[in-house]
Amino acid sequence: MTLLLAAVAVAFGALAQSVSGIGFALVGGPLLFALFGAREGVRVAVVLSMLVNVGVLAREHRAVMWRRVMPVLVTALAVTPLLAWLLDGVHPRLLRAAAGAVVVLGAVLVAAGRTRDSGVVGGVVAGLASATMNVLASAGGPAVAVYATGARWDPARLRATLQAYFLSLNVVTLLTLGAPSWSLHEAVVLVVALLAGAVAGAWLSGRVPVEWARRVTLALAAAGGLAVLISAAV
User: Fold this and answer.
1) What is the CA radius of gyration of the chain?
2) Domain of residue 6, residue span
3) Could you read off the pLDDT of 70-129 as tens digits, one per residue?
4) Total of domains in the chain
5) Cα distances (Å, whole numbers) of residue 174 to 42, 43, 126, 171
């Protein structure tokens, strides 16, 4: 039953990310953590997230704003191995609680947004925050989304730029943490669910207002993060 629920969450996460640019780990992560545990759940989420990134980039790669995202990306790639090493010895329950808290905090940050461009310094801070959240919960999107809002990135090119950032960061995270040890059955079920959600998201991306999709994604993310946080405390 947990695998089925995780598959549903993965499908909705893939749909959300295909439409709004973020949301896969925020929506799918909590149940992946419940199914696999905090450390293994992050590895699984990273692999699945990479598939979503590739799917979106396959149709939108020409829209990537490499120059705008570079300060965030370089910082995140540089600090990810160090962060993974520092967090390696953390107790599993504490790590799970931290992952749940990160998801909730990320949803709140994106919902709050901001309107001021903080320049290169802000990009470095966003990269550090994003890398930390990605190692903890495969949820590096909120910090970058908040920065992109303040920097007034072109909304029409934001989704593609975020996928390019996430794919680069996820590759480094996976190389640092190692591949997941899920079973073939688990992998097939989750990948099929992800593909179904991604196809639906590709169809909806031009039909559903991005703001509406973002609000639903954040609400689901906050609820899922709270569930993981509570389960780690009991």
Assistant:
1) 16
2) 2-233
3) 999 999 999 999 988 888 877 777 877 887 787 788 778 777 765 566 778 888 988 988
4) 1
5) 9, 7, 20, 5
The answer to pTM > 0.85 is no
Provide the token pair at 124: 């470095």
Q: What are the pLDDT digits (tens) for 21-30? A: 888 988 898 8
Non-local (6+) Cβ contacts of 151 within 8 A are: 68, 117, 118, 119, 122, 123
Cβ atoms within 10 Å of 101's Cβ, excluding its own: 17
User: What tokens were used for 121?
Assistant: 């310094």
Residue ranges in the chain modelled with pLDDT below 70: 1, 113-117, 217, 224, 231, 234
C-alpha 184/C-alpha 182 separation (Å) is: 7
Q: Which residue has the tokens 């949301």?
A: 23
Q: Helix or strand or coil: residue 217?
A: helix
CA 166 to chain centre: 8
CB 229 within 8 A of CB 100: yes
Cα of 160 vs its chain's centroid, Å:
14
Residues 206, 98: Cα–Cα separation, whole Å:
35
CA distance 48 to 15: 13
Going by C-beta distance under 8 Å and a sequence separation of 6 or more, which residues neighbour residue 16? 22, 23, 24, 26, 27, 201, 213, 216, 217, 220
Q: By the 8 A CB rule, do 55 and 168 touch?
A: no
Amino acid type, 165? Y
